[in-house]
Amino acid sequence: MLSPLATGICAGLGTAGAAGLAAGGFAYASLWPSSRIFGTALTAPRRPGEIALTFDDGPNPEWTPRLLDILAKHDVKATFFMLGKFASVHSELVRRVAAEGHLIGDHSWSHPKLSYCPAQRIRDELKRTKDTLEQIVGAKVKFFRPPFGARRPAVFRIARELGLEPVLWNAMTDDWIEPSTEKIAATLSKRVDAMTSRGFAVNIVLHDGNFRVAVGKRGPSVAAAETIMKRYVPTHTFVTLLQWV
């Protein structure tokens, strides 16, 4: 239901303009990480000085092991939101992630925009991945991040029915297409400093995988993650999402 003001605006715009306004409103509600119109999700609490490094779209047999070595070198634990279609093929790598003390979350089976999927497809994507990950690691999977951040009320409702806490973020860059490690790290550093100054913890998204191919090139993302660790380990505490619930 539109407010009286919005109704008046739409009437003035005409049918085409109103449709565009509605489409823009849906896009904001379903994709923008700070939007709560379609439901709340774990993002970052008011705990300045804490950073959660999270990685999406893996496991990646080329780059996830390198990332794990870097995390171990800096004694940092991270959260990995994995795709079921890759986890099922690279189960030993999934087990290594868990064995080294990192948190594993559900990122759907095939990375669709769930905001446009029927309810049964949403349930199948989440449950199939959750079941697969739990079989591999022998532990409950408790967190879920929607691919692209795309959601509508049914996405979060179904996730919670499956025992999954939805997660978004407050620090992100286009690391999946940006070839420069320095630019990725600089953008994220600005986000970290801004969130910290505003009194919030920081939930960083980077990508150790590519949802289109199992062995995506993720060198700049992995190198940027190490830059962030080197810069902030002396002044911040790195946590997994378990510390925020």
The helix tally amounts to: 8
Order of helices and strands: HEHEHHEHEHEHEHE
Gyration radius, in Å: 19 Å
Q: What proportion of the residues is helical, as a percent range?
A: 40-55%
Given as residue ranges, the uncertain stretches (5+ residues, pLDDT < 50) are 1-13, 15-23
Strand content: 5-15%
The total beta strand count reads 7
In the CATH hierarchy, what is the class? Answer: Alpha Beta
Task: Based on Cα principal axes, name the global outline.
Answer: globular
Overall structural domain count: 1
* CATH H-level superfamily title: Glycoside hydrolase/deacetylase
Concise description?
With 245 residues, the chain is of the alpha/beta class. The chain is built from 8 helices and 7 strands, in the order αβαβααβαβαβαβαβ.
Can you describe this structure?
With 245 residues, this protein is of the alpha/beta class. It has a single domain, classed as Glycoside hydrolase/deacetylase (TIM Barrel). 45% of the residues lie in helices and 12% in strands. The protein contains eight helices and seven strands. The chain has helices at residues 4-31, 64-73, 84-87, 91-99, 119-137, 153-161, 181-197, 219-232, and strands at 50-58, 79-82, 103-106, 143-144, 165-166, 202-207, 237-239. Strands 1, 2, 3, 6 and 7 form a five-stranded parallel beta sheet that branches. It has a two-stranded parallel sheet with strand order 4-5. Strand 1, helix 2 and strand 2 form a beta-alpha-beta unit. Helix 2 (64-73) packs parallel to helix 8, helix 5 (119-137) runs parallel beside helix 6 and helix 7 packs across helix 8. The longest helix has 28 residues, at 4-31. The chain is globular, with a radius of gyration of 19 Å.
